[in-house]
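Good day; I would like, with your permission, to put a structural problem before you. A protein sequence and the structure tokens that stand for its backbone fold form the material at issue. The record follows directly beneath this note:
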Amino acid sequence: MKKQLLLITFLTLITNAAIAQAKKPTLMVVPSDAWCIQNGYVLEFDDQGIPTRIPDYKRAFQENTELLLVISKINGLMAERDFPLKNMESVVRSLSSYAAEDAMRSSKSSGAEVAESPVDQLKSIAKADIIMQLTWNVNQTGPRKSVTFNLQGLDSYSNKQVATAAGTGAPSFSTELPVLLEEAVLSHIDNFSSSLQDHFDDLFENGREVTIRIKRWDDWEHDLESEYGPNEDELGLLIEDWLADNTVQGRFSTIDATENMMIFEQVRIPLYTERNGRQRAVDTRSFMRGLSNYLEDAPFNIENKVTTRGLGEATLFLGSK
């Protein structure tokens, strides 16, 4: 009997490991802010008196053929290693229609317009697990050229750097940028890919890391210290109990808590959930809908509204929509 139990346990561990390894993170290669600014592909505006520059991805793709070639080459290198990819050029084309919709959208109460950075928009549309941020420069010594590159893997939800590769390729007489870039990147790409997979395996086991905020409208008659339920527990404590029950291994950190707001960081939400017999991806918004529904039901009966910023941050407003 003990041998059978050991065999079953061993097979289960192998099966779980195989499932985790079979799933790879979805990637999207993006030119870095530094590259966009260096090459003049920026939009400038006044943000409450502060001059601000943001990448103009649409113009970069329309005007710079090298960008298309470089991203295509990196996409090819990652595809050879079986990573699923989102094509940035296609995502950028979708941004125009979304921008038109956002231009007509405003807050119900204040009339404020939608505020979202280009990177947040890209993440929201592409739903890529990892953003591969790329910077490169071409160096020339006499007739020979080389490429210096910096490739950063950023978790789309937490914005943390999870992998990096940087270096300069050997000087070559080749004049084609994709060839020079491939020569520079090839000696680093396997370690870079391994770091990406290790990070995704950790997410698969321990959940995505997101940030959650709880706020109340100032005209709501209750607050986070109001008491609910048969034990008359404070609302803030009941929300923490819900997070403990619904996060992966109950992992989250309460950064701040008052009667008016709560901030939770390092909130680990599952990557997938089973629904109607099918496995579905979980994002911050769908996870927060669970808390929203919990608070709308008895004994709370609290009307609320969920908003998101990018992929990894959600805010729940209590008291009304």
In short: Residues 24-98+116-204 form a domain with the Rossmann fold fold (CATH 3.40.50).
